[in-house]
Amino acid sequence: MQSWSNESQSGSDPLRPTLDPGPDSDPDQTRSRCVLGAVPVVYYTVLLCVGLPVNCVTLAALYRLSSRSKSPLYSFLISITAADILAQVCIVLVDFLLETAVFHRAVPPLLLHAVSAAEFAANHASIWAAVPLTVDRYVALCHPLLHRRIRSPTRTRRTIAVVMALAFASGIPFFYWPDLWRTQAPPSRWDAALIWSHVTIIYFLPCSIFLTLNSRIIWTLRHRPSPPRSVALLLSLSGLFSLLWGPRVLALLLHLHVATVNRSWRVHLLYDLSNMAAMLNTALNLLLYSATSHPIRRTARNIICEVIRGRGQRSREGSKSQDPD
Fold it and tell me: Sign of dihedral through CA atoms 186, 188, 189, 190?
């Protein structure tokens, strides 16, 4: 089994599965072991190498469509995609791949806690970016007259800015997030408060909003033969989020009330797998958008073709410049 570890005594870990530090580095042989070996390193590397370019293409396509149509829908989708990019960079690249799998050495505790706060902020922003979209679609479909009256690009940008600011601010308390992997003692009251705050912010509260508003939207559109594609997109986003983030919430609550990650290899394994599933949520935007929106699908395809043609043209120009006269 691979031997990767961060040897600092105080750590932070919102989504990172810690790899087995090896028997020689851990005097407490009762501590749970990671049974996945190098699988998380490979998984997160592929996720970053595929998900980051895909999100960049998605962002470019949405920005092009937003510039043409001035639709609030594209502005909300831009905020979701940008937040997902930030989450991938902060959590997958900085925290797991660089800090744990590459450097795997002692890191100053203050830096670890600062990275933790940044990761939770990006994580919360990635999830809560879908909430204003849900509210906007609810108002547009259930209260169309009100939506026409309040709809404006300035109001949309202001709403997105407020939600993102609150999401980023919500990450500050998690500067003190407990080190689930190395702490020997059961969670304290402060740890329990942080864990319950986290699962409420990232799952219970947004899921309640999605369930309530989406149910109202479906009830309103129940007699329409073909509901708007924005509804299909909204249901896909909220349904995928609920499915992929549910296991992580379950793992955290098991850690808090049943057995700690540090002591139970089963909870440890569930937490590893649930973290991997949760981060997958940040890489599937283009697939969902393309499946439910022809303009996004067409624009993304055009951008990819332009990039391929541009590379081909530059390579031909480079070969011509190297040919002797």
Answer: negative
